[in-house]
Amino acid sequence: MPVGILQSSLDPDQPGRSFQLASQAAADGIELACASEKQADAMLSAEAVAQVAQWKQQYALQVPGIALAVLSQTESLFGKPNVAEAAVRLIRRALATTKAIGAETVILPFLGKAAIESDPELDRVVEALPPLAEEAEQDGLTLGIECTLNVNQQLHLLEHLSTYPSVKACYDTGWALVRRLDPATFLRDLGPGNICQIHFRDVRLGEDGRPPEWNVALGEGDVDFSAVASAIAAMSYEGWIVLETPATDDPLAAAKANMQFARQVLTQR
């Protein structure tokens, strides 16, 4: 299966350098990231489409999709009308760019301020997604929902959107563990047909009320990646694995180490 790495794990502000680092780290692809409005304006421009085509050829890398991390800065699709409308416009721009660069997926993170914490918020997201899902489906694209909901809630969301195969879950090992859920069991319960991407991210759980530590390389936190890899094998999942890891002061060394760890654990599954 292809193993890629998120741009934010390399150089968030310089996509060209991120392509170079991903190539040097022996990744199969790079997931582009829009973590701010400035990054989104740059990445979702016509100029960026031409640049990405050049970088893909130059570095022999695929681009599985675009992650709209900027959505986590507001309540996104369940926010006030002006907030939700801005989120919809951004997602539509991302869909157009994703199609133009030959990628497949737009990741919609419901994290941070956009974390879905109540049934009314979940209902508003379910109501907002169908027009976007229809547009994605018409273009052969996928909307990947990355969230902190438990597996039953995620399946409930996907069931309500079951007429749109273009909506799937983007599963994150770190967020599953932070919610005190077993990542491997969670993965099996979601099922391969409901997953568009799996993000490998480690985390060190906080004790005595302390927050979790996210600045952790793969294998140095509390995620049992051997169990996750076994679940992936049991599911016969063959889609993208995308590494979401800290860049550190030496992003190339970090990327190489995390890539080596991921490939090793996936080989031993």
Give a structural overview.
The protein has 269 residues and is α/β, with parallel strands linked by helices. The protein has a single domain, classed as TIM Barrel (Alpha-Beta Barrel). The chain is built from ten helices and eight strands. Helix 1 links the parallel strand 1 and strand 2. It is globular and about 45 Å long. The two termini are 13 Å apart.
List keywords for this structure.
single chain; 269 residues; eight-stranded parallel beta barrel; 8 strands
Concise description?
The chain has 269 residues and is α/β, with parallel strands linked by helices. 46% of the residues lie in helices and 15% in strands.
Q: Could you tell me the mean pLDDT?
A: 95
Into which percent range does the helicity of residues fall? 40-55%
The CATH class:
Alpha Beta
Predict the CATH topology. Answer: TIM Barrel
Q: Give the strand order, joined by hyphens, for the main sheet.
A: 1-2-3-4-5-6-7-8
Helices, by number, come to 10
Our estimate of the beta-strand percent is: 5-15%
Radius of gyration: 17 Å
